Amino acid sequence: MLAREGTRLCIVGVAGSPSCGVITTSSGYTGGLPTGPGPASAHVSGRGVFMEELLAELERRGVAFQVDEVGKKEDTCGDS
Questions:
Q1: Coil, strand, or helix at residue 74?
Q2: What is the dihedral of CA 16, 13, 75, 60, to 10 degrees?
Q3: CA distance 23 to 14
Q4: Which residue of 6, 39, 46, 69 could cross-link 15, Cys pair, CB 3.0 to 4.6 Å?
Q5: What residues have CB less than 8 Å from 57, skipping those under 6 apart?
Q6: What does the buried/exposed string (b/e) look like for 3-39 if buried means 16 or more CB atoms within 10 Å of the residue's CB?
Q7: Residues 37-74 pLDDT 10s
Q8: Is 69 exposed, middle or buried (0-12, 13-18, 19+ CB in 10 A)?
Q9: For position 76, what pLDDT does the model report?
Q10: C-alpha R_g of the chain
Q11: CA nearest neighbour of 77 among 35, 4, 22
């Protein structure tokens, strides 16, 4: 309802999350509990899997949104 009235959503993700990153995500992590040396993971530019799907659906529906991540120095969702 708010989106139909022109309200712009602010989607807040988690920096570096392989699921919920919106600006940075992780690459190289294969899951499970760490048990010792293994493939290194790194933070890379991009969106996590969940956020890719969520934001694609919002775009498909024509819902206005902007994104930000927890832990960033600047709060972009507070900007008008």
A1: coil
A2: 120
A3: 9
A4: 69
A5: none
A6: eeeeeeeebebbbbbbebbbbbbbeeeeeeeeeeeee
A7: 666 778 889 999 999 999 999 999 999 999 999 866 55
A8: buried
A9: 59
A10: 15
A11: 22
Residue that is written with structure tokens 């493939």 in the block: 39
pLDDT of residue 43: 82
Distance between CA atoms of residues 20 and 61, nearest Å: 20
Tokens 């790194």 appear where? 42
DSSP states along 38-70: ----EEEES--HHHHHHHHHHHHTT--EEEEEE
Length, in residues, of the chain: 80
- The two beta strands, 65-70 and 9-14, are parallel
14 contacts 20 by C-beta, under 8 angstroms: yes
Q: What letter represents residue 1's amino acid?
A: M
